[in-house]
C-alpha cells in the first residue's frame, strides 16, 4: 500500500506510480506460470543452436555470447503484446488516461514491472545459458553487465511499440516487425562487448553505447508510450 512509504503522499504521482507497479507485479505473481514462458523459450532456443551447428566446443564457445543475446531478445518479445492490451480491453487504460496523473509516469511503472518480470530473469539466465554453451568465464562478467544495460533498453523499446499497436487487433506480427529493427543496435553492441572480451579488445566502448542508449531512453520511452496510449484511448 502506498501509505507504507512515509515519504510518499497519498494521491501524488509517486503514490500512483507505486500503486500501479504493485498491481502489475501482483498480477504477474498470480500468473507466474505465464511469466516463466520467456525463460523456457530462451532455454529452448539456446539448446537448438548446438543441434543446428554441431557439437564442436570451440565453435559454440565462439558464438555463445551472440546466442545468449539473440535468445534474450526473442524471449523478451513474447510478453510485449500483453503489456498494455489487457488494460485496454478491460477499460483500465481509459481510467489511467483520465486519472489526472502524468501518463508518462504510469507508463514508466508498467515498463519497470515488465522488466522485473521478464528482463531481470533473462538478465540472470543469459550468462548461465552462455556458460552452458561454453563461453569463456572471463567474458561472463562482460555479458552480465551488457545484459543489465541492454534488457531495460529492450523493455523500453518494446513498450513503445506495444503502446503504438495496442489499439490494433492481432498486432503480434506487426509489433515484432516494428520493434525488431529498433533493437538491432542493442544486439550489436551487446554481442560486440562479449566479442571484445573474448578477443582481448576494449569492452568499454560498446558498454558505454548501451549505457548512453539507456540514459536516452529513460525519459523518452515513457513519453512516447504516454502519447501513443492517449492516441489509442481517444
Please outline the helices and strands:
Blueprint lengths: L12 H18 L1 H4 L1 H17 L3 H21 L7 H6 L1 H6 L5 H30 L7 H25 L7 H28 L4 H30 L1
Helix pairs in contact: 1-7, 3-4, 3-7, 4-7, 4-8, 4-9, 7-8, 7-10, 8-9, 8-10, 9-10
Structure description:
The protein is mostly helical. Helix content is 79%, strand content 0%. The protein is built from ten helices and no strands. It has helices at residues 13-30, 32-35, 37-53, 57-77, 85-90, 92-97, 103-132, 140-164, 172-199, 204-233. Helix 1 (13-30) crosses helix 7 and helix 7 crosses helix 10.
Give start-end ranges of low-pLDDT stretches.
1-8
* Overall mean confidence score, pLDDT: 86
In percent, how much strand structure appears in the residues? Answer: under 5%
What summary fits the major beta sheet?
none
Return Rg in Å.
Answer: 19 Å
**SS class:** mainly alpha
Number of helices: 10
Q: What is the ordering of alpha helices and beta strands?
A: HHHHHHHHHH
Percent helix among the residues? over 70%
Kindly, what is the distance between the CA atoms of the first and last residues, rounded to a whole number of angstroms?
Answer: 30 Å
Query: What is the count of β-strands?
Result: 0
Gross morphology? elongated
Amino acid at each position: 500500500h502506498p501509505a507504507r512509504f512515509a515519504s510518499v503522499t497519498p494521491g501524488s504521482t509517486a503514490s500512483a506510480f507505486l500503486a500501479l507497479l504493485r498491481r502489475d507485479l501482483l498480477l504477474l505473481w498470480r500468473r507466474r506460470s505465464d511469466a516463466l514462458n520467456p525463460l523456457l523459450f530462451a532455454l529452448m532456443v539456446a539448446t537448438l543452436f548446438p543441434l543446428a551447428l554441431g557439437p564442436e566446443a570451440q565453435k559454440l564457445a565462439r558464438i555463445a555470447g551472440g546466442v545468449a543475446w539473440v535468445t534474450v531478445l526473442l524471449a523478451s518479445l513474447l510478453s510485449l503484446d500483453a503489456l498494455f492490451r489487457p488494460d485496454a480491453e478491460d477499460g483500465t487504460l481509459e481510467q489511467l488516461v483520465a486519472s489526472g496523473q502524468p501518463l508518462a509516469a504510469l507508463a514508466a511503472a508498467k515498463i519497470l514491472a515488465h522488466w522485473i518480470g521478464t528482463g531481470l530473469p533473462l538478465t540472470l539466465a543469459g550468462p548461465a545459458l552462455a556458460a552452458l554453451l561454453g563461453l569463456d568465464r572471463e567474458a561472463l562478467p562482460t555479458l552480465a553487465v551488457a545484459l543489465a544495460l541492454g534488457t531495460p533498453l529492450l523493455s523500453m523499446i518494446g513498450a513503445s511499440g506495444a503502446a503504438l499497436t495496442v489499439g490494433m487487433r492481432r498486432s503480434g506480427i506487426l509489433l515484432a516487425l516494428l520493434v525488431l529493427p529498433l533493437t538491432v543496435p542493442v544486439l550489436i553492441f551487446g554481442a560486440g562487448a562479449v566479442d571484445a572480451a573474448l578477443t582481448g579488445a576494449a569492452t568499454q566502448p560498446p558498454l558505454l553505447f548501451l549505457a548512453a542508449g539507456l540514459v536516452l531512453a529513460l525519459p523518452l520511452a515513457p513519453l512516447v508510450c504516454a502519447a501513443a496510449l492517449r492516441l489509442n484511448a481517444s
